Amino acid sequence: MTVVVIDERLEKAYQDVVRRNPAEAEFHQAVREVLESLGPVLAKRPDFADSRIIERICEPERQIIFRVVWQNDAGEVEVNRGFRVQFNSALGPYKGGLRFHPSVYLGIIKFLGFEQIFKNALTGMPIGGAKGGSDFDPKGRSDGEVMRFCQAFMTELYRHLGEYRDVPAGDIGVGAREIGYLFGQFKRIANEYESGVLTGKGLGWGGSLVRKEATGYGAVFFAREMLAVRGQELEGQTCLVSGSGNVAIYTIEKLHALGAKAIACSDSSGFVVDEDGIDVELLKQVKEVERRRVSEYATRKPKARFVPGGNIWEVPATVAFPSATQNEINGHDAKLLVKNGCIAVCEGANMPTTPDGIRVFQEAKIAYGLGKAANAGGVATSALEMQQNASRDYWSFEYTEARLQKIMSEIHRVCYETAAEYGSPGDYVLGANIAGFLKVADAMDAFGLI
Ligand code: NDP
Question: Does residue 39 lie within any of the structural domains?
Protein backbone atom coordinates (compact mmCIF):
# COMPACT_ATOMS: atom_id res chain seq x y z
CA MET A 1 0.00 0.00 0.00
CA THR A 2 1.25 3.50 -0.83
CA VAL A 3 1.54 5.58 2.34
CA VAL A 4 0.75 9.25 1.90
CA VAL A 5 2.90 11.50 4.05
CA ILE A 6 0.82 13.93 6.03
CA ASP A 7 1.55 16.97 8.18
CA GLU A 8 3.44 16.09 11.37
CA ARG A 9 0.60 17.25 13.65
CA LEU A 10 -1.92 15.26 11.67
CA GLU A 11 0.33 12.20 11.72
CA LYS A 12 0.54 12.50 15.50
CA ALA A 13 -3.26 12.80 15.77
CA TYR A 14 -3.61 9.71 13.58
CA GLN A 15 -1.09 7.72 15.63
CA ASP A 16 -3.03 8.66 18.78
CA VAL A 17 -6.23 7.31 17.21
CA VAL A 18 -4.46 4.04 16.34
CA ARG A 19 -3.05 3.71 19.84
CA ARG A 20 -6.32 4.46 21.63
CA ASN A 21 -8.47 2.31 19.35
CA PRO A 22 -6.38 -0.82 18.86
CA ALA A 23 -7.39 -3.43 16.26
CA GLU A 24 -10.05 -1.21 14.68
CA ALA A 25 -8.67 -1.15 11.15
CA GLU A 26 -11.76 0.30 9.45
CA PHE A 27 -11.89 3.18 11.92
CA HIS A 28 -8.19 3.92 11.40
CA GLN A 29 -8.75 3.91 7.62
CA ALA A 30 -11.70 6.32 7.81
CA VAL A 31 -9.77 8.70 10.08
CA ARG A 32 -6.65 8.60 7.91
CA GLU A 33 -8.64 9.43 4.79
CA VAL A 34 -10.04 12.56 6.42
CA LEU A 35 -6.74 13.64 8.00
CA GLU A 36 -4.93 13.26 4.66
CA SER A 37 -7.21 16.04 3.38
CA LEU A 38 -6.72 18.47 6.25
CA GLY A 39 -3.15 19.70 5.73
CA PRO A 40 -4.23 22.77 3.71
CA VAL A 41 -6.84 23.60 6.36
CA LEU A 42 -4.29 23.63 9.19
CA ALA A 43 -2.05 25.83 7.06
CA LYS A 44 -4.86 28.41 6.83
CA ARG A 45 -6.27 27.91 10.32
CA PRO A 46 -3.46 27.26 12.84
CA ASP A 47 -5.99 27.96 15.62
CA PHE A 48 -7.49 24.52 14.95
CA ALA A 49 -4.19 22.93 15.96
CA ASP A 50 -4.03 25.00 19.16
CA SER A 51 -7.56 24.05 20.21
CA ARG A 52 -6.93 20.41 19.24
CA ILE A 53 -10.16 20.28 17.25
CA ILE A 54 -8.91 17.35 15.18
CA GLU A 55 -8.12 15.20 18.21
CA ARG A 56 -11.52 16.11 19.67
CA ILE A 57 -13.41 15.22 16.48
CA CYS A 58 -11.68 11.82 16.36
CA GLU A 59 -12.88 10.95 19.87
CA PRO A 60 -16.57 9.93 20.08
CA GLU A 61 -18.68 11.91 22.54
CA ARG A 62 -20.15 8.67 23.87
CA GLN A 63 -19.87 4.93 23.11
CA ILE A 64 -22.56 2.56 24.29
CA ILE A 65 -22.06 -1.22 24.20
CA PHE A 66 -24.76 -3.52 25.53
CA ARG A 67 -25.92 -7.10 25.85
CA VAL A 68 -28.90 -8.23 23.78
CA VAL A 69 -30.56 -11.46 24.93
CA TRP A 70 -33.45 -13.03 23.07
CA GLN A 71 -34.99 -16.41 22.29
CA ASN A 72 -34.95 -18.10 18.88
CA ASP A 73 -37.80 -20.17 17.40
CA ALA A 74 -36.34 -23.36 18.89
CA GLY A 75 -36.66 -21.81 22.34
CA GLU A 76 -32.88 -21.45 22.71
CA VAL A 77 -31.35 -18.39 24.30
CA GLU A 78 -29.18 -16.24 22.02
CA VAL A 79 -26.75 -13.54 23.10
CA ASN A 80 -25.65 -10.67 20.85
CA ARG A 81 -23.82 -7.42 21.34
CA GLY A 82 -25.41 -4.04 20.62
CA PHE A 83 -23.61 -0.76 19.86
CA ARG A 84 -24.40 2.91 19.56
CA VAL A 85 -21.56 5.35 19.03
CA GLN A 86 -22.79 8.92 19.51
CA PHE A 87 -19.90 10.56 17.76
CA ASN A 88 -20.61 14.26 17.41
CA SER A 89 -23.58 16.49 18.22
CA ALA A 90 -22.14 19.88 17.24
CA LEU A 91 -24.67 20.42 14.45
CA GLY A 92 -27.74 18.68 15.83
CA PRO A 93 -29.03 15.50 17.47
CA TYR A 94 -26.99 12.37 16.77
CA LYS A 95 -28.14 10.83 13.49
CA GLY A 96 -27.05 7.67 11.69
CA GLY A 97 -28.23 4.18 10.88
CA LEU A 98 -28.20 0.81 12.59
CA ARG A 99 -26.41 -2.12 10.95
CA PHE A 100 -27.26 -5.75 11.73
CA HIS A 101 -24.54 -7.96 10.26
CA PRO A 102 -22.28 -10.67 11.75
CA SER A 103 -19.18 -8.60 10.88
CA VAL A 104 -20.26 -5.75 13.17
CA TYR A 105 -17.86 -4.83 15.98
CA LEU A 106 -16.88 -1.54 17.58
CA GLY A 107 -14.38 -0.63 14.81
CA ILE A 108 -17.04 -0.86 12.09
CA ILE A 109 -19.52 1.22 14.06
CA LYS A 110 -16.87 3.85 14.81
CA PHE A 111 -15.79 4.13 11.18
CA LEU A 112 -19.40 4.54 10.09
CA GLY A 113 -20.12 7.04 12.87
CA PHE A 114 -17.02 9.06 12.00
CA GLU A 115 -17.97 9.24 8.30
CA GLN A 116 -21.49 10.18 9.29
CA ILE A 117 -20.32 13.38 11.06
CA PHE A 118 -18.96 14.89 7.84
CA LYS A 119 -21.66 13.46 5.58
CA ASN A 120 -24.39 14.93 7.74
CA ALA A 121 -22.60 18.28 7.81
CA LEU A 122 -22.46 18.26 4.00
CA THR A 123 -26.24 17.83 3.74
CA GLY A 124 -26.68 21.29 5.27
CA MET A 125 -29.27 19.83 7.67
CA PRO A 126 -29.07 20.25 11.46
CA ILE A 127 -27.93 16.74 12.35
CA GLY A 128 -24.96 15.33 14.25
CA GLY A 129 -23.20 12.03 13.54
CA ALA A 130 -23.72 8.56 15.05
CA LYS A 131 -23.99 4.91 14.10
CA GLY A 132 -25.10 1.74 15.80
CA GLY A 133 -25.94 -1.88 15.26
CA SER A 134 -25.29 -5.42 16.30
CA ASP A 135 -23.48 -8.60 15.29
CA PHE A 136 -26.93 -10.19 14.89
CA ASP A 137 -27.45 -11.73 11.42
CA PRO A 138 -31.05 -11.36 10.23
CA LYS A 139 -30.36 -13.61 7.22
CA GLY A 140 -32.37 -16.83 7.41
CA ARG A 141 -34.21 -15.72 10.57
CA SER A 142 -38.00 -15.87 10.81
CA ASP A 143 -40.03 -12.68 11.23
CA GLY A 144 -40.69 -13.72 14.84
CA GLU A 145 -36.98 -14.05 15.57
CA VAL A 146 -36.19 -10.69 13.98
CA MET A 147 -39.01 -9.11 16.02
CA ARG A 148 -37.79 -10.58 19.31
CA PHE A 149 -34.24 -9.49 18.56
CA CYS A 150 -35.35 -5.94 17.68
CA GLN A 151 -37.44 -5.72 20.85
CA ALA A 152 -34.53 -6.86 23.01
CA PHE A 153 -32.18 -4.44 21.22
CA MET A 154 -34.52 -1.48 21.70
CA THR A 155 -35.14 -2.35 25.35
CA GLU A 156 -31.66 -1.03 26.09
CA LEU A 157 -31.25 1.48 23.25
CA TYR A 158 -34.46 3.43 23.92
CA ARG A 159 -33.01 5.26 26.94
CA HIS A 160 -30.34 6.84 24.72
CA LEU A 161 -32.74 8.05 22.00
CA GLY A 162 -35.06 10.97 21.45
CA GLU A 163 -35.97 13.34 18.63
CA TYR A 164 -33.66 15.97 20.14
CA ARG A 165 -31.06 13.48 21.34
CA ASP A 166 -30.39 10.62 18.92
CA VAL A 167 -32.34 9.46 15.86
CA PRO A 168 -31.32 6.13 14.28
CA ALA A 169 -32.36 4.78 10.86
CA GLY A 170 -31.58 1.67 8.79
CA ASP A 171 -28.38 0.39 7.20
CA ILE A 172 -27.24 -3.09 6.14
CA GLY A 173 -29.69 -5.66 7.52
CA VAL A 174 -32.05 -3.01 8.87
CA GLY A 175 -34.91 -2.15 6.52
CA ALA A 176 -38.61 -1.31 6.85
CA ARG A 177 -39.43 -4.51 8.77
CA GLU A 178 -36.77 -3.94 11.43
CA ILE A 179 -37.56 -0.22 11.78
CA GLY A 180 -41.21 -1.22 12.39
CA TYR A 181 -40.30 -3.61 15.22
CA LEU A 182 -37.86 -1.10 16.71
CA PHE A 183 -40.35 1.76 16.59
CA GLY A 184 -43.10 -0.43 18.06
CA GLN A 185 -40.91 -1.34 21.01
CA PHE A 186 -39.76 2.24 21.55
CA LYS A 187 -43.38 3.44 21.59
CA ARG A 188 -44.34 0.71 24.05
CA ILE A 189 -41.55 1.51 26.51
CA ALA A 190 -41.66 5.31 26.23
CA ASN A 191 -45.46 5.43 26.20
CA GLU A 192 -45.21 8.26 23.69
CA TYR A 193 -45.79 8.44 19.95
CA GLU A 194 -42.53 10.18 19.24
CA SER A 195 -42.42 9.87 15.45
CA GLY A 196 -39.15 11.75 15.08
CA VAL A 197 -37.17 9.21 17.11
CA LEU A 198 -36.46 6.90 14.15
CA THR A 199 -36.43 7.48 10.41
CA GLY A 200 -37.14 5.10 7.54
CA LYS A 201 -40.58 4.47 9.05
CA GLY A 202 -43.51 3.02 7.10
CA LEU A 203 -45.56 5.50 5.07
CA GLY A 204 -48.70 4.92 7.14
CA TRP A 205 -47.02 5.73 10.47
CA GLY A 206 -44.79 8.76 10.09
CA GLY A 207 -42.50 7.73 7.27
CA SER A 208 -41.55 9.97 4.37
CA LEU A 209 -42.07 9.33 0.70
CA VAL A 210 -38.70 8.99 -1.11
CA ARG A 211 -36.79 7.89 2.05
CA LYS A 212 -36.61 4.30 0.80
CA GLU A 213 -35.35 5.44 -2.60
CA ALA A 214 -33.21 8.34 -1.38
CA THR A 215 -29.71 6.90 -1.05
CA GLY A 216 -29.78 5.23 -4.47
CA TYR A 217 -31.53 8.09 -6.23
CA GLY A 218 -29.18 10.57 -4.56
CA ALA A 219 -26.09 8.67 -5.71
CA VAL A 220 -27.37 8.76 -9.28
CA PHE A 221 -28.05 12.52 -9.05
CA PHE A 222 -24.51 13.00 -7.74
CA ALA A 223 -23.03 10.95 -10.60
CA ARG A 224 -24.97 13.04 -13.10
CA GLU A 225 -23.51 16.23 -11.59
CA MET A 226 -19.96 14.84 -11.67
CA LEU A 227 -20.31 13.91 -15.32
CA ALA A 228 -21.94 17.23 -16.22
CA VAL A 229 -18.98 19.31 -15.02
CA ARG A 230 -16.80 17.20 -17.33
CA GLY A 231 -19.13 17.79 -20.26
CA GLN A 232 -20.40 14.19 -20.15
CA GLU A 233 -23.86 12.71 -19.74
CA LEU A 234 -25.28 9.93 -17.63
CA GLU A 235 -27.70 8.98 -20.34
CA GLY A 236 -26.37 6.10 -22.41
CA GLN A 237 -23.79 4.95 -19.83
CA THR A 238 -23.46 1.25 -18.98
CA CYS A 239 -23.30 0.76 -15.23
CA LEU A 240 -22.29 -1.77 -12.58
CA VAL A 241 -24.11 -1.62 -9.24
CA SER A 242 -22.75 -3.90 -6.55
CA GLY A 243 -25.06 -5.24 -3.85
CA SER A 244 -28.76 -5.89 -4.33
CA GLY A 245 -30.18 -4.31 -1.20
CA ASN A 246 -31.87 -1.00 -0.58
CA VAL A 247 -29.18 1.25 -2.05
CA ALA A 248 -28.48 -0.93 -5.09
CA ILE A 249 -32.13 -1.43 -6.08
CA TYR A 250 -32.98 2.28 -6.12
CA THR A 251 -29.72 3.19 -7.82
CA ILE A 252 -30.69 0.84 -10.65
CA GLU A 253 -34.23 2.20 -10.75
CA LYS A 254 -33.07 5.82 -11.14
CA LEU A 255 -30.32 4.94 -13.63
CA HIS A 256 -32.91 3.40 -15.91
CA ALA A 257 -35.29 6.33 -15.44
CA LEU A 258 -32.50 8.68 -16.60
CA GLY A 259 -31.55 6.66 -19.67
CA ALA A 260 -28.49 4.78 -18.38
CA LYS A 261 -28.34 0.98 -18.18
CA ALA A 262 -27.34 -1.06 -15.12
CA ILE A 263 -26.18 -4.44 -16.40
CA ALA A 264 -24.96 -6.13 -13.21
CA CYS A 265 -25.64 -6.36 -9.49
CA SER A 266 -24.50 -8.73 -6.75
CA ASP A 267 -24.66 -10.08 -3.22
CA SER A 268 -22.04 -11.77 -1.08
CA SER A 269 -22.49 -15.04 -3.04
CA GLY A 270 -21.70 -13.67 -6.53
CA PHE A 271 -23.01 -11.39 -9.25
CA VAL A 272 -25.64 -11.36 -11.97
CA VAL A 273 -25.13 -9.94 -15.46
CA ASP A 274 -28.10 -9.02 -17.58
CA GLU A 275 -27.02 -7.30 -20.79
CA ASP A 276 -30.62 -6.16 -21.41
CA GLY A 277 -30.42 -4.12 -18.22
CA ILE A 278 -31.40 -5.40 -14.77
CA ASP A 279 -35.18 -5.76 -14.52
CA VAL A 280 -35.68 -3.76 -11.33
CA GLU A 281 -39.21 -5.01 -10.68
CA LEU A 282 -37.98 -8.61 -10.78
CA LEU A 283 -35.07 -7.67 -8.52
CA LYS A 284 -37.46 -6.07 -6.01
CA GLN A 285 -39.65 -9.17 -6.08
CA VAL A 286 -36.68 -11.47 -5.41
CA LYS A 287 -34.93 -9.32 -2.80
CA GLU A 288 -37.55 -7.15 -1.10
CA VAL A 289 -40.62 -9.38 -1.24
CA GLU A 290 -39.22 -12.91 -1.17
CA ARG A 291 -35.93 -12.08 0.63
CA ARG A 292 -33.98 -14.52 -1.58
CA ARG A 293 -30.45 -14.50 -2.99
CA VAL A 294 -29.58 -12.55 -6.13
CA SER A 295 -28.88 -15.85 -7.98
CA GLU A 296 -32.65 -16.37 -8.02
CA TYR A 297 -32.92 -13.43 -10.44
CA ALA A 298 -30.96 -15.37 -13.08
CA THR A 299 -33.15 -18.45 -12.75
CA ARG A 300 -36.17 -16.32 -13.71
CA LYS A 301 -34.55 -14.28 -16.47
CA PRO A 302 -33.23 -16.68 -19.14
CA LYS A 303 -30.82 -14.17 -20.71
CA ALA A 304 -29.20 -13.25 -17.39
CA ARG A 305 -26.32 -15.24 -15.92
CA PHE A 306 -25.20 -15.70 -12.36
CA VAL A 307 -21.47 -15.95 -11.63
CA PRO A 308 -21.03 -17.64 -8.24
CA GLY A 309 -18.25 -16.10 -6.17
CA GLY A 310 -17.40 -13.79 -9.09
CA ASN A 311 -15.98 -10.30 -8.98
CA ILE A 312 -18.49 -7.80 -10.41
CA TRP A 313 -15.71 -5.26 -11.15
CA GLU A 314 -14.42 -7.52 -13.94
CA VAL A 315 -17.49 -6.72 -16.05
CA PRO A 316 -16.71 -3.94 -18.58
CA ALA A 317 -18.82 -0.81 -17.99
CA THR A 318 -18.45 2.97 -18.01
CA VAL A 319 -19.80 3.94 -14.57
CA ALA A 320 -19.56 1.97 -11.30
CA PHE A 321 -21.77 2.34 -8.23
CA PRO A 322 -20.31 0.29 -5.36
CA SER A 323 -23.40 -0.14 -3.16
CA ALA A 324 -22.73 -3.18 -0.97
CA THR A 325 -20.17 -2.69 1.78
CA GLN A 326 -16.80 -1.28 2.91
CA ASN A 327 -13.56 -2.11 1.07
CA GLU A 328 -15.29 -3.93 -1.78
CA ILE A 329 -13.02 -2.28 -4.42
CA ASN A 330 -9.27 -2.75 -3.89
CA GLY A 331 -6.38 -1.45 -5.99
CA HIS A 332 -6.60 -4.43 -8.33
CA ASP A 333 -10.36 -3.95 -8.90
CA ALA A 334 -9.85 -0.22 -9.43
CA LYS A 335 -7.22 -0.91 -12.11
CA LEU A 336 -9.59 -3.36 -13.82
CA LEU A 337 -12.37 -0.77 -13.88
CA VAL A 338 -10.09 1.89 -15.35
CA LYS A 339 -8.63 -0.53 -17.91
CA ASN A 340 -12.14 -1.50 -19.03
CA GLY A 341 -13.07 2.12 -19.76
CA CYS A 342 -14.76 3.24 -16.56
CA ILE A 343 -15.10 7.06 -16.51
CA ALA A 344 -16.80 7.52 -13.13
CA VAL A 345 -17.19 5.79 -9.77
CA CYS A 346 -19.94 6.96 -7.45
CA GLU A 347 -20.18 5.37 -4.01
CA GLY A 348 -23.58 4.34 -2.68
CA ALA A 349 -21.90 2.31 0.07
CA ASN A 350 -19.79 3.72 2.90
CA MET A 351 -16.02 3.54 2.29
CA PRO A 352 -16.32 0.86 -0.42
CA THR A 353 -12.95 1.72 -1.97
CA THR A 354 -9.64 0.96 -0.24
CA PRO A 355 -7.01 3.74 -0.08
CA ASP A 356 -5.06 2.01 -2.89
CA GLY A 357 -8.21 1.90 -5.02
CA ILE A 358 -8.86 5.61 -4.44
CA ARG A 359 -5.32 6.44 -5.58
CA VAL A 360 -5.84 4.45 -8.78
CA PHE A 361 -8.98 6.46 -9.57
CA GLN A 362 -7.27 9.74 -8.74
CA GLU A 363 -4.21 8.96 -10.85
CA ALA A 364 -6.42 7.93 -13.78
CA LYS A 365 -8.28 11.24 -13.29
CA ILE A 366 -11.69 9.63 -13.57
CA ALA A 367 -14.63 11.19 -11.70
CA TYR A 368 -14.61 9.70 -8.21
CA GLY A 369 -17.48 10.55 -5.84
CA LEU A 370 -16.75 9.31 -2.34
CA GLY A 371 -19.54 7.89 -0.20
CA LYS A 372 -19.76 10.64 2.35
CA ALA A 373 -20.84 13.01 -0.40
CA ALA A 374 -22.45 10.70 -2.96
CA ASN A 375 -24.62 8.65 -0.60
CA ALA A 376 -25.69 11.53 1.64
CA GLY A 377 -29.15 11.59 0.03
CA GLY A 378 -30.37 8.90 2.43
CA VAL A 379 -29.62 10.77 5.60
CA ALA A 380 -30.69 14.07 4.04
CA THR A 381 -34.11 12.59 3.34
CA SER A 382 -34.17 11.20 6.89
CA ALA A 383 -33.79 14.81 8.00
CA LEU A 384 -36.73 15.69 5.72
CA GLU A 385 -38.69 12.92 7.44
CA MET A 386 -37.85 14.52 10.79
CA GLN A 387 -39.07 17.88 9.47
CA GLN A 388 -42.37 16.34 8.42
CA ASN A 389 -42.73 14.61 11.80
CA ALA A 390 -42.01 17.82 13.69
CA SER A 391 -44.59 19.78 11.71
CA ARG A 392 -47.10 16.88 11.58
CA ASP A 393 -47.00 17.24 7.83
CA TYR A 394 -46.77 14.85 4.89
CA TRP A 395 -45.15 15.87 1.62
CA SER A 396 -45.78 14.53 -1.89
CA PHE A 397 -43.30 12.29 -3.71
CA GLU A 398 -42.57 14.98 -6.30
CA TYR A 399 -41.91 17.69 -3.73
CA THR A 400 -39.67 15.45 -1.59
CA GLU A 401 -37.72 14.18 -4.58
CA ALA A 402 -37.19 17.74 -5.80
CA ARG A 403 -35.79 18.62 -2.34
CA LEU A 404 -33.48 15.59 -2.51
CA GLN A 405 -32.28 16.56 -5.96
CA LYS A 406 -31.53 20.11 -4.83
CA ILE A 407 -29.64 18.86 -1.77
CA MET A 408 -27.49 16.53 -3.89
CA SER A 409 -26.65 19.24 -6.34
CA GLU A 410 -25.77 21.58 -3.46
CA ILE A 411 -23.51 18.91 -1.90
CA HIS A 412 -21.83 18.49 -5.26
CA ARG A 413 -21.36 22.23 -5.65
CA VAL A 414 -19.89 22.65 -2.16
CA CYS A 415 -17.44 19.75 -2.64
CA TYR A 416 -16.46 20.92 -6.09
CA GLU A 417 -15.90 24.54 -5.08
CA THR A 418 -14.08 23.66 -1.87
CA ALA A 419 -11.68 21.39 -3.78
CA ALA A 420 -11.00 24.20 -6.25
CA GLU A 421 -10.50 26.73 -3.43
CA TYR A 422 -7.92 24.43 -1.83
CA GLY A 423 -6.05 23.93 -5.07
CA SER A 424 -7.32 20.51 -6.25
CA PRO A 425 -10.16 21.06 -8.71
CA GLY A 426 -12.26 17.94 -9.27
CA ASP A 427 -10.94 16.21 -6.12
CA TYR A 428 -14.17 15.33 -4.30
CA VAL A 429 -12.26 13.55 -1.51
CA LEU A 430 -10.51 16.76 -0.56
CA GLY A 431 -13.60 18.90 -1.16
CA ALA A 432 -15.98 16.73 0.90
CA ASN A 433 -13.58 16.19 3.79
CA ILE A 434 -12.64 19.86 4.09
CA ALA A 435 -16.16 21.25 3.66
CA GLY A 436 -17.65 18.77 6.14
CA PHE A 437 -14.82 19.27 8.62
CA LEU A 438 -14.98 23.08 8.56
CA LYS A 439 -18.69 23.13 9.32
CA VAL A 440 -18.31 20.86 12.35
CA ALA A 441 -15.06 22.42 13.56
CA ASP A 442 -16.46 25.96 13.44
CA ALA A 443 -19.49 24.91 15.49
CA MET A 444 -17.32 23.12 18.05
CA ASP A 445 -15.09 26.16 18.26
CA ALA A 446 -18.08 28.36 19.05
CA PHE A 447 -19.08 26.05 21.92
CA GLY A 448 -15.77 26.41 23.78
CA LEU A 449 -13.86 23.40 25.01
CA ILE A 450 -16.25 20.51 24.46
P1 NDP B 1 -28.90 -3.89 2.53
O2 NDP B 1 -28.80 -4.75 3.72
O3 NDP B 1 -30.24 -3.50 2.01
O4 NDP B 1 -28.10 -4.53 1.31
C5 NDP B 1 -26.73 -4.80 1.42
C6 NDP B 1 -26.28 -5.48 0.14
O7 NDP B 1 -24.87 -5.54 0.15
C8 NDP B 1 -26.77 -6.90 0.02
O9 NDP B 1 -26.94 -7.24 -1.32
C10 NDP B 1 -25.62 -7.69 0.65
O11 NDP B 1 -25.50 -9.03 0.19
C12 NDP B 1 -24.44 -6.90 0.20
N13 NDP B 1 -23.36 -7.07 1.20
C14 NDP B 1 -23.39 -6.70 2.51
N15 NDP B 1 -22.26 -7.05 3.13
C16 NDP B 1 -21.52 -7.66 2.20
C17 NDP B 1 -20.24 -8.25 2.23
N18 NDP B 1 -19.51 -8.28 3.35
N19 NDP B 1 -19.76 -8.76 1.05
C20 NDP B 1 -20.50 -8.70 -0.08
N21 NDP B 1 -21.73 -8.16 -0.16
C22 NDP B 1 -22.23 -7.65 0.96
O23 NDP B 1 -28.03 -2.57 2.87
P24 NDP B 1 -28.08 -1.14 2.19
O25 NDP B 1 -28.38 -1.27 0.76
O26 NDP B 1 -28.92 -0.26 3.05
O27 NDP B 1 -26.57 -0.65 2.41
C28 NDP B 1 -25.54 -0.88 1.45
C29 NDP B 1 -24.40 0.09 1.68
O30 NDP B 1 -24.87 1.44 1.58
C31 NDP B 1 -23.74 0.00 3.06
O32 NDP B 1 -22.35 0.33 2.94
C33 NDP B 1 -24.43 1.12 3.84
O34 NDP B 1 -23.65 1.56 4.94
C35 NDP B 1 -24.54 2.17 2.76
N36 NDP B 1 -25.54 3.21 2.99
C37 NDP B 1 -26.85 2.90 3.17
C38 NDP B 1 -27.78 3.89 3.35
C39 NDP B 1 -29.23 3.61 3.44
O40 NDP B 1 -30.02 4.57 3.41
N41 NDP B 1 -29.68 2.37 3.52
C42 NDP B 1 -27.37 5.31 3.44
C43 NDP B 1 -25.98 5.54 3.14
C44 NDP B 1 -25.11 4.52 2.96
P45 NDP B 1 -25.80 -10.25 1.20
O46 NDP B 1 -27.28 -10.26 1.34
O47 NDP B 1 -25.24 -11.43 0.52
O48 NDP B 1 -25.09 -9.92 2.48
Answer: yes
Q: Which residues of the chain, if any, have pLDDT below 50?
A: 1
- By percentage, how much of the chain surpasses pLDDT 70? 99
Residues 218 and 354 in one domain: yes
- Could you tell me if the CB of 246 is within 6 A of ligand 1? yes
pLDDT at 5: 67
**Catalytic residue at 131?**
yes
Which phi and psi angles does 109 have, rounded to 5°? -65, -35
Residue 306: its H or E element: strand 305-308
The residues with which 98 forms a beta bridge, in sequence order, are 132
Q: Which residues contact 243 (CB under 8 A, 6 or more apart)?
A: 265, 266, 267, 322, 323, 324, 325, 348, 349
- Domain span at residue 13 reads 8-57
Same domain, yes or no, for 146 and 249? no
Torsion sign, CA atoms 381, 384, 390, 392: negative
**Domain match, 128 and 224 both:** no
What is the CB-side half-sphere exposure of residue 389 using CA atoms within 13 A?
A: 26
- How far is residue 202 CA from its own chain's centroid? 20
Structural domain includes residue 411:
no
Asked if residue 244 has its Cβ within 6 Å of ligand 1, the reply is yes
